[in-house]
Amino acid sequence: MPVSDLPEELLALALRVAREAGDLLMERPATFDISSKSTAIDIATQMDHASEKHIVSALLAERPNDGIIGEEGASRPSSSGITWVIDPVDGTVNYLYGLPCWNVSIGAKDAAGPLVGVVHAPTVNSTWSAISGQGAWLNERPISCNDPISLDRALIGTGFAYDLGARVEQGRVIAALLPQIRDLRRMGSAAVDLCYVAMGAFDGYFELGLKEWDWAAGALIAQEAGAIVSVSDRDVTICAGPALHPHLVKAISPL
């Protein structure tokens, strides 16, 4: 029986497909075929493409009229009103080096906005999920962000742009930020960073230049866990609990 537009059914489909892709990715190849994208350090492997191919095929097998936006090039318009936004391996560099926290990120949206989100990170035994207006979960347990937190007690996550020139300015901002906060972490995956804010493992997070597939699922999960997610005029995504968010925005305002 086809999967309906009910958010609960869309979420169940996203969870199943994300776990299947995670299982595929856990079978690491002996060697990697590496291709560059926007810069020499912005890469994809054959496993990014294999994961996206599996995800797209599995989703369209159940919902053939849906649209697709995929990081590795999968794209088709929607005739059903539902579009899936896919990052088949968020944290490809982590995956390439055998580090944890890479994940499969799958979100679904309609014309009104996000509907469901799933971030599945098998190396840390974590699957985050959310339905718009119904809350967020880690491994099916409800989660919420830390709030209130002051800036001087905040553990902040971040990531660095692929544009090497932008990294110079990011370095200046971080140098100024470090004396104002508890500490800084760099996990290598935007989706996990957003989910870490959602579950209280981070107090806040910011990153320059994210694409829709980077945040589509993670931002919904963070928002449903009580966090505020905003994007500045200079394309900086900022995520934190309501009390911390304006202070974090001000602290990184040079970006």
What would the average pLDDT be, to the nearest integer? 95
What is the percentage of strand-forming residues? Answer: 25-35%
Biggest sheet overview: 8 strands, mixed
Q: N- to C-terminal separation?
A: 49 Å
SSE string = HEEHEEEHEEEEEEHEHEHEEH
Helical proportion? 25-40%
Total number of β-strand segments?
A: 15
Strand order of the largest sheet: 4-3-5-6-7-8-9-10
Number of helices: 7
Low-confidence stretches: none
Rg, rounded, reads: 18 Å
Structural category is alpha+beta
Summarize the structure in words.
The chain is α+β, with helices and mostly antiparallel strands. A hairpin with a 3-residue loop joins strand 8 and strand 9 (about 135-140). The strands form three sheets. It has an eight-stranded mixed β-sheet, with helices on both faces. The chain has a five-stranded mixed β-sheet with strand order 12-11-13-15-14, with helices on both faces. It is globular, with a radius of gyration of 18 Å. The protein has seven helices and 15 strands. Helices cover about 35% and strands about 25% of the residues. The model has no long low-confidence stretch (mean pLDDT about 95).
Q: Concise description?
A:
This protein is of the alpha+beta class and 255 residues long. Helices cover 34% and strands 27% of the residues. Strand 9 (135-138) and strand 10 form a beta hairpin.
